[in-house]
Structure formats: C-alpha cells, structure tokens
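Suppose a colleague, Dr. K., hands you the sequence of a protein chain of 447 amino acids and asks what its three-dimensional shape might be. Before reaching for any lab equipment, you can write down a predicted structure in token form. Begin with the sequence itself:
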Amino acid sequence: MFNRDITNELKKWAAKPSRKPLILRGARQVGKTTAVDLFSKDFDQYIYLNLEKGNQRDIFERQYPFADLLTTLFIFAQKQRSGGKTLIFIDEIQNSPKAIALLRYFYEEANDLYVIAAGSLLKSIMGKSISFPVGRVEYMALRPCSFREFLSATNNHQLLEILEKPEVPGFLHSQLITWFKKYATIGGMPGVLNLYSQNADITALEPAYNSLIQSYTDDIEKYADSPAQVHYIRHIISNVFREAGTKIAFEKFGNSPYRSREMKEAFVSLEKTMLVRLVYPCISTGLPLKPSLVRKPRLHVLDTGLVNHSNKIMGELVFNEEISDTHRGLIAEHIVGQELLASSSSISNELHFWVREKTDSSAEVDYLYQYNSKLIPIEVKSGAIGKLRSLHQFMDVAPHHLAVRVWQGPYLVEKAKTIAGTEFTLLNLPFYLVHRIERELDKIADK
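The predicted structure, expressed as tokens, is then:
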C-alpha cells in the first residue's frame, strides 16, 4: 500500500502532550481503516474494533465502570493493559452512541492509550439526542488521495521528491503535467489507484468505479433521515456524479418531480456523509467569508474519477491536449477543488467561489482561497491574461493585489493590469503545484 499524507498527520497527533481521542472523518472507501492500520506499525499493540459487529459493540453497551470496560476490551483483544504503547481504533463508532460518549473517559482517565474513532456516517447523528464529548476529542478529515499520493501509488517517487523542493525544475514540467492529467482522469479513490498501480490500464477500472457507486447506493437507508428521504437520496446518487461542477437548482433536480425543499433536505443529509458538497458563492472580496445561501450552489462530489466515469469522458481526457478542454472546463475546475480540499486535514476546510453582487452579472471566479487576512481569487483557465475577465472584475474591487491562475502552463509570476487599469500580481500555478499554493503566495505576498 502506498504512503498517504494522513500518516504524517497522525504522527503529529500522537506526539501531542495534550493529545485527545481522534475522530477520523471521511466518506466510505477513502481508506480510513487502511491509513490507521499503516499507522499502527508505530505501536507495540494495536486493537481494532468494528462496531458494526454486535459482539464488539456490546463491549461499550454494558453498564459497568470505565475501568472494567478497559479490562473487558483488553481481554477481548487478547492484549495486556501493560503491554506497551497501545493504539485502539474504534471503527464505525456511529453504531454505538454510548461508545461515542465514552470517548471522554479515554481522555480523562486513560490518556496513556492512543484512541482513534472513525465513521463515515458519524456526522449524521451529531446534533441528535446523543451525549457527544465536546472539547474532549479532536477531528481529522481523510479525503480521496491527493496528486502527491497518486504519484506515490504509481511509484513515481522521484517526481514526488521533486515536488517538495523549493523550486521545481522547468524541464520536468511536461512530465508532471502528463501525470497530473492521469490523476485528473482516474481520480484519487484508494481502491481504484491500487488497481491502476497493478496494470496501468484505465480501461480495466470500470468495475471498481461501479462497485464504489453501488456501495454508496446500498447505504442509502443509513444516510436518510426518514423513509421518504430514501427515494430522494437514491435519485441524487444516480444523478449527482453527472451534475458535478455545475450550479444546481434543487427544484426538479436531475429531471425529477421532487420539490425544492425535499431535494435540499436530502442533499444536506448526503453532505454529512462527505459524498457531496454544496459550494455556495460569496459576493464579497474581503473577509469574513459570507456565502450567499439564497443563490444557486455549485455541486462538488467526492472524487473527480467518479465524475469522469459517470459522464463516460475518460477517453476524452486521455486524448485532449488541455485538461481545461474537457467537459466545458468543469473537470479542470473540479480536480483543482479536490486538490484544495486535500491540502488540509482540517474538517473545516471548505470550498468557496465568487460571483459579482449584481444579479444580472455573469462574472464568476472559480475559487476563493483564504490567505492570512486576504481572499485570493483563483481562476482555472488557459489562455491570455486579458481573457480572465471575471478575475479582473474581482481585482478591481479587491483590497489587495494578489491573484492566482491555475493552468497547464509553466510556473510564472507576472505583473498584470485589469481592463479597467488596476495593477495586480498574478501567480500562474501549474496544476501539479496547487497543493503548495500557500508556500507560493508567501514568496510573492510582500513584493
């Protein structure tokens, strides 16, 4: 199994002197269990519990003191409480509200133990009548693999090392773009990448994508808040990957007879599983970020590979010279959003885009990136600076002089001027450097 960036984040968590039990959030099939299994190699003992299994769930359901629970847990796992540095992984913890409540006691009474909990449906039970250990746990998000993890999965370790250097040599630009196009085509689902790494055959991946989508469909009853919502969510899953990257209306979504309220509530329920994300626009060019919830959201889904598979455009991506030429540019925008999300393990990492306040305006900037006290506009485009009309309109009213264009061209920092004459600094960032946008902005922020 290839290394994932999350392993380093887990090591940082374990090294904290005031460490709290960790809740690992992520959609199904993004590799939560595999990541923790890999991390467990750093420990003397590893206890894995899956609370979908009744006998393991029962350990937490009995009425006894916490000390007795620990004794039962170690006996069940055939481990010694004094057996050294111990990692306990409680998977699918949403199946036991009592286990969730008991996490606080691992923090308060057994802080020598390293405890990680996970559950793809965990957020769906938050806010209900459950004693959640607020302030006594911490969170970490696990998302589909980033481009760097894709390089690791495909044994491109030298290119991966190059991406960590202060400057990426220009002569490697073409090679890195070639591999990024493959990443934009295949996506970052770990199971798919494992299969691709074995034979490098994109045509052999179709069963893996179909299996993923079927697994999400099979879980609909777990996602839904009511029996009626099962039908709405089933409709969403059957259409959502084809609609990714577009601004959607809830009313009659996917040519359905369903009304706006029904669809919106179903989308909100599905968002909790981290399968989909409703990205609302902002109309301000400065902080604080205030998404306009009365405007149409843009739909972002778990993984771009699933989008390509559902739209049957994988061949088009392979043969197109420019990533931005495929599917009206939506795939290029979507994979950049995926990289921006993967750049942080924080569960609060969000996506935003900008629209002009005038309702009759078509000006729209693909993403906003919060950098220090600034909102940096990001356009995913090829072509000349003069064609970045929406970005120009943003910079004409922005309280700073920094902008980013993500493209297939080379790394380039240039002084630019809007159509109205506003001067600004444009960071032209190749697709393969999106993950280090913060580092690159640091270089030019004061120039």
